[in-house]
Amino acid sequence: MFGIDCGTEVTGYGVVETCDTGRQPRLVCIAMGAIRLNKKQPLCERLEQVHAELTSELLRWQPHAVAIEDVFYSVNAKSALKLGEVRGVALLAAASRGLPVAEYAPLSVKSSVVGYGLAKKEQVQFMVARLLELAELPQPADAADALAIAICHIHRAQTLALQGAAQ
Amino acid sequence: MFGIDCGTEVTGYGVVETCDTGRQPRLVCIAMGAIRLNKKQPLCERLEQVHAELTSELLRWQPHAVAIEDVFYSVNAKSALKLGEVRGVALLAAASRGLPVAEYAPLSVKSSVVGYGLAKKEQVQFMVARLLELAELPQPADAADALAIAICHIHRAQTLALQGAAQ
Predict the structure, then answer these.
(1) pLDDT tens digits for B150-165?
(2) Model ipTM value
(3) How far apart are CA A89 and CA A67, in angstroms?
(4) What is the pTM of this model?
(5) Closest chain B C-alpha to A115 CA, distance in angstroms
(6) pLDDT in tens, B67-93
(7) Residue B75 has what DSSP assignment?
(8) For chain A, which terminus, N or C, has the lower number of CB atoms within 10 Å?
(9) Chain B positions in Cβ-Cβ contact with residue A4 (cut-off 8 Å)
């Protein structure tokens, strides 16, 4: 599962897989990183960079699906348009590889990882580190958010599988 | 000059070139069209369609540059994000072909074509037809808008050339 946290300055990504050890399935962090954009570069070049780096990471880690944060409506129209441009090329990178894309609202992601929809960034980082059994807090926060989105998707899939089994 | 008018339902495009006949340079419409998106299709597929069709048209017409409408701030954040996604993949299509991209505000485009920044869609269509010596009004309006953006860029380049020659 490949999580993406889009941003106009930094776009985080993280790869999380489940590892069945016979007992309870464990979550394992495979990779994480951040694509940092230089605001002085032309917009076209920045979008090309996001698309190229995400395409390269998707090729490298060969995930089965992509999870991305859903629209955050409270930003203003100008910021939303700029964020949309980055989101567009990120979605295109996933679509070009034929990967299914799941979208989750920030509230769902935080609820799934911290248990509280209005959790702060530091709480998300702390819980991501704990769930993935990392020795240190994941850095930068954008990569931690991307890991959280991937974890949210895995939790959702596990819940749906349990519900299916119970029926 | 390849003009693009991005939209979440229809994205128009138009190709305009100048033709030097010895007297005053004429504007010639080389092509126009519209990419229509099916709202029932997943977002990823729609973005892939816009990117693929624009890439194909850019390959076909081999323009030297691309002109695109600049941000329209008065839309709400949700619409702006959706428009941004389409804009992102359109800009990526131009960037991937190494084409320079010029951005123009709707006010500049209308001023350049109609002479009035708050002109209506019909007025833009009428003036585009007149400037390009078309027998009929360009259809759909999104293609006419794309042609208007291309004309705006050519007018701007001509003005800059004249100013340079006068100095």
Answers:
(1) 999 999 988 887 887 7
(2) 0.89
(3) 14
(4) 0.91
(5) 27
(6) 999 876 666 888 889 999 999 999 999
(7) S
(8) C
(9) none
